Amino acid sequence: MIEEERTIQRMSDTLASQVAAGEVVERPASVVKELVENSIDAHAKSIRVEISRGGVASIKVADDGDGMSRADLEMCLERHATSKLRTYEELFDIHQMGFRGEALPSIASVAQVSITTRRKQDVEGSRLDCHGGELQEIRAAGCPPGTEIEVRDLFYNTPARRKFLKSLETESGHIEQQLKLHALAFPDLRFTFIRDGETVFDTPATTDLRHRISEFYGKENAGKLLRIRPTTGVGVHVEGYLMPLTDARRNRRLQYIFLNGRPIEDKMVSRAVRDGYGGFPTGLQPGYFVYIEMDPALVDVNVHPAKREVRFRRPADLTAAVMDAISATLAEFARGGRSAEPETVSPPAPRSNVLPPSSPPRPQTSDESQVGQDEEVAPIRPALRLVVEPRQQELDMPAPPQSKAATQHPHDESPQEQNVPSFRLLGIIRDQYGLFENADGLVLLSIKAARERIVFERLVAANKRPIPSQQLLAPAMVELDIRDVGLVKDLQPLLIQAGFRVQFFGERTLRVDSIPIFLSLDKVDDFIAELIEAFSNGETKLKRSRDPYELFAIRLAQRYVMKESMEDWMQNPTPLLRDLLHCEIPYCTPRGKPTMIPLSINEIQRRFQAL
C-alpha cells in the first residue's frame, strides 16, 4: 500500500512559539508587561526595569520575589508550563496576573534571553541562556534572592516584525506607560525605571494611592482628586478617585480602570463611569482612576492573548455598582459646598489668547471687502454678484487656472478680474450647505468641505513661501503623554513649516508661541493636543509617506475644520465660494470628498420630464 503524502504537519516547537509571540509580544512594552506580571505573581516587593534603545537592544527586569529552583528554571521556557494553574476549575478562579505559560517561551523564541534566579532558602542560584528558542547550558550562579531576566536583541530573528516598531523614543514611552499602569495597580510595591542609564522614576511603596498618582501626574492634580465613595454590590466592590468636572480633558489619556489589580480596557465600564456623572459636556472626557474588585468566578480574563480585555458574567451588576459609586461620590461632593453636578457646570467660555493680527483671522481679499460694502448678503436674499478668477464656466469641467492668482499667497490682493461668472445665493440648507444659482443651473456647496480644501491649499503653499504667523498673547503649554514625545519630535519640523512656532520646554512639554495667521483658535493647547492624538495611531504611515508634510497638512486641515465655528460662513458663504474657486483643485477635499455638486438646468429638466 502506497503511503499518501501528508499536507498537514505538526509545527516545530520553535515555530509554534514564534507564532504565539505574534499575539503576546507586540512590542518591547509587551515584554515588560509579561515579565513584570511574573514578578508580581512571585510576591516581589521591589521591581526594577532597565532598558536600552527603546527596549529593542535590551530589557532587564529584576525583582526580590520567590525565585525559582534549578528544576523550575529548566521548565520555565517550556510552552504552557506554569505554576499558577493546575485544574480546569482553577481557570474560573484566577487570582494571578499570568497563568497561560506562554509569555517566557514566546519571548525567548524572538530574542536572546538570560535568566538568573535564586530562592531565599538556596545557597546558590542558577543561570539559563536561550538564543532564539534554543536552550543553552544551565549553570550555577551567585545572585541575591529573586529573579533577573534579561532580553536582548528583540526580534533579531524575525526582522519583519521589527519593521513595525515605531521610533525608539515612542517605544520607550510605551514601556514607561506600561510600568505606570502596574505602579498604579500596586502602590504597595516599589517600581524603578531606568532608561539608557538614566533613572526616570523610582517610586517607593505606599499605602496612599494619591501619593502614587502625584508622582506621575503632579501634586496639583492629586490635590484635586475626589475619592470615590466605596460601593459594594453583588460580588463587586468599587473605589478609586475622580477628577472634578472642571478638569475635564479633550482626550481619554487620564482614564484608568483596574480589575483585581489588572489594568483593562472596557467600553462598558467606561460608559458606566460616564453615565454616573449624569451627562457630560460634548467633546470633553472625565478623568478617573477606578479600582474594581470582583469575585474571579464572575469574570473571564482568558478572552484576549494580552489579557487587556475581559468578559463579565453579570455585567448589569457591575454597571450598577460603578454608576452608583460615581453618582454617590459626586452627590456627596456637591453637598460639601462646591457644585459638581454636570448639568450646572459648563466648559469654560472660550477666550482668545491671540494678539490682534494686522488682518482678520479669516483673511479677506480686496474684492471681498468691496462686495461687503456694495451689497449686504444674507440667506434667501436675492441677486448677489460673485467676482472670481477667470475660469471655465462649467463647474463640472474645471480647467487649470490661467493666472497667477490661484497660486498667490492667501493674503496678497487678487489681480483685476474680467469675464467672470456670476452666482446668486439662494439660501442655506440645514446650516451645512450653501445653495447657489449660476448660468448653468444650481451649485450645492458643502461649507466644511470647502474650508478643508482652502485651509489645506494655504498650508501646502508653505512649500513655495513661508506662512506668516500670529504671535500668542501668552505661550500655549501642551503637556505631552510620554508615549507621544517621539511622535511630537517628528511632527515638530512639520508644525514649523506650517506656520507654528513650537519648541520643547523640558522633556514632556511643548511650548507654542505662534500659529498660522489664517487660523483662528481659542484654545491653542487643546487643538495641538487633539492634533497629536490624531497622529498617535498613524506615526508609521507618516514616516513612510513620500511627502510627510502633505499628509500632515491634510490631517491639520481636517482637525481645524472640525473645531472651527461655521457661523460666519453660514450667514454668508459667498466669500467662501470665491476662495474655493481660487484653489488649484476646488472640487474636492484633499481626502477626495466633494466640496460642491453642480446640477445643470438640462439635468433638472431631464429629471422632471422623467417623472
- Any idea what the radius of gyration is? 30 Å
Strand percentage, roughly?
15-25%
CATH class of the largest domain: Alpha Beta
* Structure classification: alpha+beta
Q: What is the CATH third-level topology name of the largest domain?
A: Heat Shock Protein 90
Helix coverage percent: 25-40%
Provide the low-confidence segments as ranges: 337-420
Query: How many domains make up the 3D coordinates?
Result: 4
Label the CATH architecture of the largest domain: 2-Layer Sandwich
The tally of helices reads 19
Specify the oligomeric state: single chain
Mind summarizing the main beta sheet? 9 strands, mixed
Structural description of this entry:
The structure is a single chain. This protein has 611 residues and is of the alpha+beta class. It has four domains: 13-204, Histidine kinase-like ATPase, C-terminal domain (Heat Shock Protein 90), CATH 3.30.565.10; 224-344, 2-Layer Sandwich (Ribosomal Protein S5, domain 2); 366-459 and 567-608, formyl-coa transferase, domain 3, CATH 3.30.1540.20; 468-517 and 521-563, MutL, C-terminal domain, regulatory subdomain (Ribosomal Protein S8, Chain: A, domain 1, 2-Layer Sandwich). Helix content is 33%, strand content 21%. A hairpin with a 4-residue loop joins strand 22 (501-504) and strand 23. The protein is globular and about 95 Å long.
